Amino acid sequence: MSSKGTLIVISGPSGSGKGTVVKSLMEMMPDLGFSVSATTRAPREGEVDGRDYFFISRDDFEEMIEDGDILEYTTYCGNYYGTPKKEAERITGEGRDLILEIEVDGASQVKKKFPGAVTVMLIPPSLSVLEERLRGRGTESDEVIKKRLERACEEIKLAYDYDYVVVNENGGVEACARKIKRIINAERSRSARMTETVDNFINR
User: Fold this and answer.
1) Three-class SS of residue 78?
2) Antiparallel, parallel or unpaired: β 70-76 and 79-84
3) Which of 16, 44, 99, 147 is the one with CA 20 to 30 A from 139?
4) How many whole angstroms separate alpha carbon 134 and alpha carbon 50?
5) What's the pTM?
6) Are strands 54-55 and 38-39 parallel, antiparallel or unpaired?
């Protein structure tokens, strides 16, 4: 296998269940690395700094962008979201595959910088289900929910730019995570990622 880990990008519209699916996936595949994203939005109830996100100020985030310390970033509903570059490089440098749970805009940035990245778009089974999930949070106004639904439709149009699309059915988190697990295992066996193993035979 390659001595350097692979970037595995999981993204999708707000309400697609990225966080819950990734948590289930990490339980199934504890060898995976996970890079915590940074954001300028306020923490939601129950979220912990350094576990769910690095919650930082807008000034600090913009300084990180200027210094090249953000691998990818996007703005959403007036807030920045992004991946600290050093943390991603540390994990892949250890030879571990790295899960990036990021926004759709960020996924395209990663793919441009790292063509070998594996991209997975997570989508809900329908727009009506997505609306139910967003309203079920009970944390956002009708206006914000409307904007999120409009944004979701625009983001899902980009699904054809991804390597894989996985539907997160209601009540199907574990099944969804298992699908992504199979994708990751298949990608690990690509010939391009097995060069060191093959070369060990050729160069004996």
Assistant:
1) coil
2) antiparallel
3) 99
4) 24
5) 0.79
6) parallel
